[in-house]
Specification:
One of its GO terms (molecular function) is ATP binding. Its main location: nucleus. By secondary structure, the chain is α/β, with parallel strands linked by helices. The protein folds into two domains: 6-26 and 162-379, Dna Topoisomerase Vi A Subunit, Chain: A, domain 2, CATH 3.40.1360.10; 31-150, Arc Repressor Mutant, subunit A (Orthogonal Bundle). It has helices spanning 6-21, 31-50, 95-114, 120-126, 128-131, 134-148, 213-221, 224-227, 242-255, 267-278, 287-290, 302-307, 320-330, 333-336, 339-351, 367-379, and strands spanning 56-60, 68-71, 75-78, 84-88, 118-119, 157-158, 164-167, 170-172, 178-180, 188-189, 198-201, 207-210, 232-235, 259-262, 296-299, 316-317, 353-354. The chain has a six-stranded mixed β-sheet with strand order 10-7-13-12-14-15, with helices on both faces. A hairpin with a 5-residue loop joins β8 and β9.
């Protein structure tokens, strides 16, 4: 099986040449710069109070498609003239969020000043009644990151990772702990401090992003990384968290190898793949460190459903939510610029059916790991 990666090797060599010519990695912002930016916000508020005016905060609207544009080599990036939301401390509808932002700014300032770190859960459980929910705190943290124009990791607040990784990979955590991901039967949690990882060692020929944890576990159980070694597999367990996206980007930047995506043949699987490839609206200001524009769609392609004669009884009819999601996808610039992707999505919409990766097991128990994926990788069956 020595020649099974010939097509992947050619893709890897092309990718490395491209990355050597166009390295877009950003440098981290210094602690002093973060402190200075927080102080400027506070000074603006103090000045307003001294002038007898009600203090206001102007936040960029992160969750509106009108606030982002598509850049083919980067992904979704924030527009220069982003719509702004104004929070007034004397307005009942915004006073609470205004206060919470200042509370979190105070916590962040102390963390950065002392060069210490905290997780989002730590901050939330220090005063759960104040924030009300973890989701509220998460949203405020992203607002602050966007307002200060700094990567979230520079705020010294980490999120607990939900993703897992396995394969031909070793590295050192920031504290010197050695992490070995080579076990064929168990996975390693994605680091909560991806930025601190160093001394990455790997002979992997490719990275495989796996949408679902169940599929990821199936690959582990079937010793996929051993059978198709050397490679790396990673899952964000559905919609990926920031750490999983950072990890994929860091490995891509470091190893310069192809990145493939294995997702369900449904609108939500495609959207999850697009988050890895192009980023998301809400974190478009961090596209350079989160998105991997070279991600390739390995499967499950809608055209594979007929090509491999996936049994009809395993297919799932489209719901109204699926129809709405696929219509939304087809309006996006990053889909319309890729004719092959567009054809697959059109085919799915015509069929009005979707298929999960697990449906391949109805063809044969080990069809995914011993037939489908090896053939895709051997013969270049990606788009």
């Amino acid at each position: 099986m020595a020649d099974q990666f010939i097509v992947v090797d050619e893709l890897r060599d092309t990718l490395r040449e491209s990355l050597e010519k166009d390295d877009r990695r950003q440098e981290d912002i210094s602690r002093q710069d973060v402190l200075t930016r927080i102080e400027r916000v506070i000074q603006t508020i103090v000045f307003s109070v001294s002038e007898g005016e009600a203090p206001v905060l102007r936040l960029m609207n992160r969750c509106n498609w009108a606030s982002v544009r598509f850049h083919e080599s980067v992904g979704l990036v924030r527009k220069a003239d982003v719509p702004v939301t104004t929070l007034r401390c004397d307005c009942p509808s915004s006073a609470t969020r205004f206060a919470l932002i200042f509370k979190l700014l105070s916590v962040i300032y102390k963390l950065v000043q002392s060069d210490s770190y905290a997780t989002k859960r730590d901050i939330y459980y220090n005063d759960p009644q104040l924030f009300g929910s973890q989701k509220t705190l998460d949203s405020i943290l992203d607002d602050i990151s966007c307002m200060l124009k700094v990567p979230r990791r520079s705020l010294h607040v980490f999120a607990t990772s939900k993703g897992f990784i396995s394969g031909d990979l070793c590295y050192l955590e920031e504290d010197g702990t050695k992490v070995d991901c080579n076990s064929s039967s168990t996975a390693v949690p994605v680091s909560s401090n991806v930025n601190g990882i160093r001394n990455i060692v790997s002979a992997a020929k490719f990275i495989l992003i796996v949408e679902k944890d169940a599929t990821f576990q199936r690959l582990l159980d079937d010793a996929f990384c051993t059978r198709l070694s050397p490679c790396i597999i990673i899952t964000g367990k559905g919609v990926p968290d920031v750490n999983s996206r950072l990890m994929v980007r860091k490995l891509w930047d470091t190893l310069h190898i192809p990145v493939f995506a294995l997702v369900d043949a449904d609108p939500y699987g495609i959207e999850i793949m697009c988050i890895y490839k192009y980023g998301s609206r809400s974190l478009a200001f961090e596209a350079h460190s989160l998105a991997v524009p070279s991600v390739l769609w390995l499967g499950l392609l809608p055209s594979d459903i007929q090509r491999y004669r996936v049994p009809e009884e395993t297919l799932i009819p489209f719901s109204q939510a699926d129809e709405s999601k696929i219509n939304s996808l087809r309006t996006r610039d990053y889909i319309s610029c890729q004719p092959a992707w567009e054809r697959e999505i059109e085919a799915m919409q015509r069929l009005k059916q979707k298929a999960e990766i697990q449906s391949l097991s109805s063809i044969a128990p080990h069809f995914l790991t011993r037939v489908y994926l090896p053939n895709k990788l051997r013969y270049g069956g990606w788009i």
